[in-house]
Write a structure and sequence with these properties.
It is a single chain. The protein is mainly β and 188 residues long. It has three domains: 61 residues, SH3 type barrels, CATH 2.30.30.30; 61 residues, Nucleic acid-binding proteins (OB fold (Dihydrolipoamide Acetyltransferase, E2P)); 58 residues, OB fold (Dihydrolipoamide Acetyltransferase, E2P), CATH 2.40.50.140. It is 0% helix and 54% strand. The protein contains no helices and 16 strands. A six-stranded antiparallel β-sheet has the order 1-6-2-3-4-5, with no helix packed on it. The protein has a five-stranded antiparallel β-sheet with strand order 9-8-7-10-11, with no helix packed on it. A five-stranded antiparallel β-sheet has the order 14-13-12-15-16, with no helix packed on it. It starts with a strand and ends with a strand.
């Protein structure tokens, strides 16, 4: 049993007869009244995200997890196929267990969390950022740089990311997988 002081991003807990992964948390100490922890929990079975508030010192039932590296092979509808990088065993996961499936390209190595009790996969942790090639974007208008202007760009995985006006088709960009936002242009 853990308490609210052990809450961190990525922790898996048992709550309301389901297993949830903590996506966001915030310790709040108001001027009046007891402290509490505001959390955003994502169900590992349904993918549904809920908000919950735990009072300070509340006992939470954490789930022991094991992490393993897997390489993304291909997607087939809403089913995603991964291969273990150590023993080459393959597993399939549903799209709901992925945080950012639109930014996942073939060959990308991800970390999959497994429940140590029954060895079932709980969730997929993407790398902090991925490098993707821009396949389509409108050309930027010269002189339109007075503000931080952005334009939509389609990347090789099919996802759409807002990028600065100087990004062109064929450029490689670094994308933050948590927010799905542009970070920087990557030079080869």
């Amino acid at each position: 049993m853990a308490s609210t002081s052990d809450i961190r991003k990525g922790l898996c807990i048992r709550y309301n007869h389901d297993i949830f992964k903590i996506v966001e948390f915030l310790h709040v100490k108001p001027g009046k009244g007891p402290a509490f922890v505001r959390t955003k929990l994502k169900s590992v079975t349904t993918g549904k995200v809920i908000d919950n508030t735990f009072s300070a010192g509340h006992k939470i039932d954490d789930v022991r997890v094991e992490t393993r590296s897997y390489q993304f092979l291909y997607a087939e509808g809403t089913t995603y196929h991964f291969m273990n990088t150590d023993d080459y065993n393959q597993i399939t996961l549903e799209e709901s267990s992925l945080d950012a499936p639109g930014l996942l390209k073939e060959g990308e190595v991800v970390t999959i969390l497994f429940n140590t009790e029954d060895s079932l996969p709980l969730s997929v942790d993407m790398p902090a950022s991925v490098i993707l090639e821009v396949t389509y974007t409108e050309p930027g208008v010269k002189g339109n740089t007075a503000t931080n202007a952005t334009k939509p760009a389609k990347v090789e995985t099919g996802a759409e990311v807002n990028v600065p006006l100087f990004i062109n088709e064929g450029d490689k960009i670094k994308v933050d997988t948590e927010k799905g936002s542009y970070m920087e242009r990557v030079k080869e």
